[in-house]
């Protein structure tokens, strides 16, 4: 009986250590960042480039960590004049050249292998200010690869950035950010 109790205690104490952490290393060639901003006449689509990123997560405990860095100065919408205004007046990309995301937890069950819809919680820092966010995420994973589509609506005006609207042009006060990932998945 004492041996059974000792074994049970050992199993309970070591169980968290047996939980599997996974890591995804994000690079510019495996991560695509798109934005969409509507106005009364049309929708503007554009891109940003990733600098680097790593996300570590445990599907059992739902804990996550890491850091994702976006190069804000690379933002392009297909119009040189619009991009110049966007960088100078809205994003102020010389002063705030990076946006970052630091994940803290995952809400929902992530199947590895399999497909899952989860929310990733964390802190998104943009334009010098940190914001608690939840990212709607669709994940498809094999034992060695993770593909994900992440979406975030950014209320940039209420987050302190300038509204580019004028008396002729009225743009939405929220921009949609979509991130597509297809990266190696590493079990730690």
List keywords for this structure.
alpha+beta; 53% strand; 9 strands; 15% helix; Lipocalin; nine-stranded antiparallel beta sheet; 188 residues; 2 helices
Describe the structure.
The protein is an alpha+beta fold. It has one domain (20-187): Lipocalin (Beta Barrel). It has helices spanning 2-18, 80-91, and strands at residues 22-26, 31-38, 43-57, 64-76, 98-107, 114-126, 129-141, 145-154, 175-187. Strands 1, 2, 3, 4, 5, 6, 7, 8 and 9 form a nine-stranded antiparallel β-sheet that branches. The longest helix has 17 residues, at 2-18. The two termini are 35 Å apart.
Give the averaged pLDDT, no decimals. 90
Residue windows where pLDDT falls under 50 for at least 5 positions:
3-18
Proportion of residues in helical segments: 10-25%
By CATH's scheme, which homologous superfamily applies? Lipid/polyisoprenoid-binding, YceI-like
What's the main sheet like? 9 strands, antiparallel
CATH secondary-structure class: Mainly Beta
The beta-strand count equals 9
- Structural class of the secondary elements? alpha+beta
Give me the strand/helix succession: HEEEEHEEEEE
- Rg from Cα: 20 Å
Per the principal axes of the C-alpha atoms, what is the gross shape?
elongated
The CATH architecture: Beta Barrel
Tally the structural domains.
1
First-residue to last-residue Cα separation: 35 Å
Write the CATH fold name. Lipocalin
Number of helices: 2
The percentage of residues in β strands lies in over 45%
Give a short overview.
With 188 residues, the protein is of the alpha+beta class.
């Amino acid at each position: 009986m004492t041996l059974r109790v000792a074994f049970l205690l050992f199993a309970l104490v070591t169980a968290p250590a047996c939980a599997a952490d996974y890591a995804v290393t994000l690079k510019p060639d495996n991560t695509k960042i798109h934005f969409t901003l509507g106005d009364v006449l049309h929708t503007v689509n554009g891109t940003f480039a990733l600098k680097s990123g790593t996300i570590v997560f445990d599907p059992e405990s739902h804990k996550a960590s890491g850091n994702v860095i976006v190069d804000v100065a690379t933002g392009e919408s297909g119009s040189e004049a619009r991009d110049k205004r966007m960088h100078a007046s809205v994003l102020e990309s010389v002063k705030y050249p990076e946006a970052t995301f630091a994940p803290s937890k995952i809400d929902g069950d992530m199947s590895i292998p399999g497909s899952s819809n989860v929310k990733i919680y964390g802190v998104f820092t943009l334009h010098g200010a940190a914001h608690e966010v939840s990212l709607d995420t669709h994940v498809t994973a094999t034992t060695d690869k993770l593909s994900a589509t992440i979406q975030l609506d950014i209320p940039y005006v209420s987050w302190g950035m300038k509204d580019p609207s004028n008396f002729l042009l009225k743009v939405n006060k929220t921009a949609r950010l979509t991130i597509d990932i297809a990266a190696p998945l590493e079990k730690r």
